[in-house]
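REQUEST ID: PR-0412
SUBMITTED BY: lab tech R.K.
PRIORITY: routine
TASK: structure prediction, single protein chain
INPUT:
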Amino acid sequence: MSDRPAKSHGRLSQSASLTPRELVSDRPRLATAWCAKVITLFPETFPGVLGASLTGKALQDGLWALETIDLRPFGTGKHRQVDDTPAGGGAGLVMKADVMGRALDMAVAGTPGRKDWPIVYLSPRGKPLQQADAGRFAAARGMTLVCGRFEGLDQRVIDHYRMEEVSIGDYVLTGGELAAQVLLDATVRLIPGVLGNAASTEEESFSDGLLEHPQYTKPAEWRGHAIPPVLLSGDHGAVATWRRAQAEALTQARRPDLWAKRADGDED
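STATUS: complete
OUTPUT:
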């Protein structure tokens, strides 16, 4: 007799479905809650890190909502094929227009126009994600994100749905799921009520074109390193001046591109 169990243990049983899966659906959801719809071949990877800390609590509390749409059920043939060889030849596979189109038709049904509900395709060739983009996405009513795989997505789908292509950096990932979570984290934290203290976002890196100044907390001295005396002086004006100078010095040293852009703006 085999000692192997009849059923696998410790794994989730999943079945293909054309119905979007709303995560944390057992909790209240505000009627006006900002919503993200994510089209992916790996819906089980969500919410991922978004389910932790303040973004996770806000998701539980219904301040924002997350729906995953499994791309596989929209595939063609017996094996639900979602990709095919590139037109014109070449290595790899390309995500099919007809498959993604069906998934997007479901995702965008009932949503407003692109200004209030952007469609974003995570792609290494996309426009680099900026803090201003996160603010724009947070100000919308929601967004749909498409997680790429393989060599990319048929260009006709990108054009037809007027997608924004967004990149999180000059490197290539195996898929768009991690990039989507990065974009969502940057966006969701700007939704009112998620962080609790709105002022905490006002002095962050990139909020005014500068990197953030160094931060310190108790104890006043640690392993021979003391907190800069100005921060303990009680002089709020001196503290603000010091922080500004530190932010400018860090930006000049570490991000000359940001500093140059800021300098060009000051000259206008």
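NOTES: The domain at 203-267 is CATH 1.10.1270.20 (Trp Operon Repressor; Chain A).
REVIEWED BY: pending
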